[in-house]
Design brief:
7 helices; mainly alpha; 72% helix; 0% strand
């Protein structure tokens, strides 16, 4: 969850962890219970990562990068699409007909988002910020991930402007707590 380094190193490491979780899901036999457990882990990581980005990365992009508002808005749209897929996936068992389809669709969306961040957004941010600013953002991202909710919530607004009005993370429920206490709905 917290790796160290500046914001770009921290978030890139998160991206590789997400890639690894997708690979672990795909390595399990279709319908295996382990796929559901790994999908839960993936959901936790994606929601924590998204909340941290929305709280600190995108405001920094808006502040420091030329054209940052448009870039941040596009990233938020990507997050809304991923969150919709996570909500669709939630509650489905690994042997559900839609489970594999949703995992595949989620992987495509997340992979496209990651490529866009790593190839376009991160280099622009790195060029626009001092090393100290990037380090400070890395620290803030790590703190945000520690306290972030970890489950998408169906009533949370996912489209502009409502998703920007609601405080970051407000519409999300803590999935990790549910998993640890055995509460499911």
């Amino acid at each position: 969850m917290g790796h160290g380094g500046n914001v770009i190193v921290e978030l890139t490491t998160d991206h590789r962890e997400v890639d690894s979780l997708f690979a672990q899901i795909e390595a399990q036999p279709v319908g295996a219970k382990q796929r559901r457990e790994l999908a839960d882990d993936l959901t936790v990581e994606l929601v924590r990562h998204s909340v941290a980005e929305e709280e600190y990365l995108y405001p920094a992009v808006r502040r420091y990068v030329d054209g940052g508002d448009d870039l941040a808005d596009k990233e938020l749209e990507d997050h809304a699409g991923v969150e919709r897929l996570l909500r669709d996936l939630e509650g489905r068992e690994a042997d559900d007909d839609q489970f594999n389809h949703l995992i595949a669709k989620l992987k495509l969306e997340v992979s496209a988002h990651v490529r866009d961040e790593e190839n376009r957004l991160f280099p622009l941010l790195e060029a626009a910020c001092t090393p100290e600013t990037l380090d400070d953002l890395g620290d803030k991202i790590r703190k945000a991930k520690k306290t972030a909710p970890t489950r998408p919530h169906p009533s949370a607004p996912t489209t502009p402007p409502a998703n920007k009005i609601v405080a970051t993370g407000t519409g999300l429920v803590d999935r990790a707590r549910d998993l640890l206490t055995g509460r499911h709905h």
